[in-house]
Amino acid sequence: MSVSNTLSTASAKPRTRRPATRRQKRDWLFAAGFLAPFMILLLVFQYVPLLVMARNSVYDYSLLNPAAAKFVGLRNFTDMIDYDDAAVSFGVTFLFALGVVVFVIPIAFSLALFLNSKLPARGLVRTMIMLPVVTSSVVVATMWSFLLDPSNGLINGVLNIVGIGNQPFLTSTSQALPALIAMTLWQQVGFGAILFLAGLQGLPVELTEAARIDGATRRQVLWNVTIPLLSRTTLFVVVIMTVFSLQAFAPAFLMTQGGPQESTNLIVYHIYNSAFIMQQAGYASALSVALLLVVLAISMAQMALLRSRWNY
Amino acid sequence: MNARILFLAGLLGATALGSTGAFAQNSAACTGEAVTLRILRTPGNYPYPAPMEAWQKENPCVKFEINEVPFAQLADTISVQAASSNPPDVLVYDGPNTQSYAASGILLPLTKYLPKDWDEDILPATKAEHSFEGEVYSPGIEQTTVAMYYNKKLVEAAGIKPPQTLDKAWTWPEALAAFKACQQGPAGAPSIWGLGPTRFGNGQPGLVYQDLIYQRSAGDPKAAPESSAYKTFWALSKDGKSVEGYLNTPEAIEALKFYQSLFNSEGVAPKVGIPNAFFDGKACFYIDTPAAGSALIKDPKIEWGITPIPYFKTPIVHTGSTTIGATARSKHPDIAAKFVVDMSTGEYAYMNVSQRGNLPTLKSLFPRFETYNAYPMKVFVDQLQEWGQPRPPGPKFAQYDKLVTDALRAVAFGGDPADLMADAEKKVQRVLDR
């Protein structure tokens, strides 16, 4: 008798539940044994810290002297409303995520279409777009800092050639965030493209062939068959890119330190800053709780809005 | 089974022999309890091996276990390790954090361990920086401050003669005229900059250590304590509890408009770092600590000189360096305190200071450093003794430093000085009030 059968029988007739056989007990023991290492790691490194974080969010303390923690109730949360740093940081982070997702999706999809075709140089393009994905964020951020240098950067050099003056990029409140979005787009688009490519290669060929036989043009097939059928992949890419963007830290830490004037103060960098520099670990925990809830809410909203209506 | 027993017996024997050897090595001189002091420091920093070995000869029962972290991660590491169940015994940390660490109970008060004549011998700025509520928490080994280096060839070609003594120091407008005369190429994108970028941090402007002196020098410490000139100079209330009215003053804003012009309208200083700009001959003037002069003495890549830091109304330079302290929760507080004090005084202090080339904190040691007795390096000593002030000290210095640095950087990048300083005051006050 299988485990699922046992469970269904038990739930239907709880009073007449038969004692588990030796084999069932052994199966449970083995299952628990195999699951235990992962479950223990998950508990110790994911759920326990989450609970500790939630507990810390109602205390005011410094990492230098955690023994002197004071219970402050919801003060850390009301501070997020009373002072504008949290609102500014969340606002900047949403803009960053929006910028990344809005540009990554169409570009990654276009690249995936190209990689899925039989055009020449596909292998070269695949390598080119995957290289930034596997390159360390620290290396990418450092490289882009040099590229975007306001005086001697390569990008300004190119702009000078076409008659455009030096741009301040990372030192300008209006250009710093777009510059970080551009860098993240360059780094993440390859990952999005690979996910879309996997989705494209999983589509049943007969559907597109049938549409073509029915007289649909390539554009109509793309618009009316391929894109709707890729909605699951699109949802996955949107959620992954949104979560990546909401968790971004390296660009703000390495390239702008959250400036100028907090224009790139991404929320994870703000949390780090609150805990380790400002020594407000309780407030940082409250920000983390808020971020967790925001990420959950956004992911659920995206899943509800972009839910797949087609199956194949 | 026999093979296993033989193997275990062999292992036991080898361990016993090894232990006997280690014990014999220590017991040759150590007659008391063996102690291991755990030291957290940055790479290449003191306490250096030679003074440590010399000290160990006098204290044969003490061993050292050294952990090193890069300076950029030092404060974070201390935050984590200081609260752990087994904190280091000795910390080498950034001096302005003394009051913060003292207030948090991390550092051990060292007043009772200091030599009798220490009070008269120590530089006042060092003592102020390393004291909290009447107790000294670090004797300090070395001290630094900044002065303005110049490239002799470039400056002389522009017909400029920078002053070499404090009494003839330039004002900032005079210095700007020199930057403009020496700079080569268009403002904002020259081939040779009037004033080179800092080597600290990521090379961007705004660091409190180097750039808060612009506005502080527009203040006046002799003015009435309620006046904005007085508050501008101190940049934080004496008790460290209030910053409102200390950063956003008319004098500070005027100075900051000038500071901003260097990076924008005048275009004589870059907004981002250029590695080794001064040493590669790409900057006429450059602000740095004595470490740059010591490096140039050893390897004179360019002909160079030093001029005192310019000012608006009151000359001022910030002091501060890394420093050394014993932790309050050390398992061997007396030994850790003795080690820290010994490393910071007398011959051991001389050995430590002479290794890196910064300035000593003890006046009695200055005559022993010949380099500092004559121009150009004497400028540092004179500045330190005449103009030296710690960065606004207080138990929330790290937070103050971060928030004011952000504001100064935003000013350098073109933001409105009054708005930014008002915002900085609000944010710093929030931290001070918590």
Task: Report the sheet-strand fraction of chain B.
Answer: 5-15%
What do we call the CATH homologous superfamily of the largest domain in chain A? MetI-like
What is the first-to-last residue Cα distance of chain B? 68 Å
Q: Structural class given helices, strands, pairing of chain B?
A: alpha/beta
Mean pLDDT of chain B: 90
Strand order of the largest sheet of chain B: 2-1-3-12
**Largest interchain contact:** A-B, 32 and 35 residues
Strand order of the largest sheet of chain A: 1-2
Count of alpha/pi helices of chain A? 14
Shape of chain A: flat
What's the total number of strands of chain B?
A: 14
Order of helices and strands of chain A: HHEEHHHHHHHHHHHH
CATH topology of the largest domain in chain B: D-Maltodextrin-Binding Protein, domain 2
Unreliable stretches of chain A, pLDDT < 50, 5 or more residues? Answer: 1-12
Give structural notes.
The complex is a heterodimer of chains A (312) and B (434). Chain A has 312 residues and is an all-alpha fold. Chain A contains 14 helices and 2 strands; from the N terminus they run ααββαααααααααααα. Helix content of chain A is 71%, strand content 1%. The longest helix of chain B is centred in the first third of the chain and has 26 residues. Helix content of chain B is 43%, strand content 12%. In chain B, α2 packs antiparallel against α14 and α16 runs antiparallel to α17. With 434 residues, chain B is α/β, with parallel strands linked by helices. The radius of gyration of chain B is 25 Å and the shape is globular. In chain B, 50% of the residues are buried. Classes of the chains: A mainly alpha (312), B alpha/beta (434).
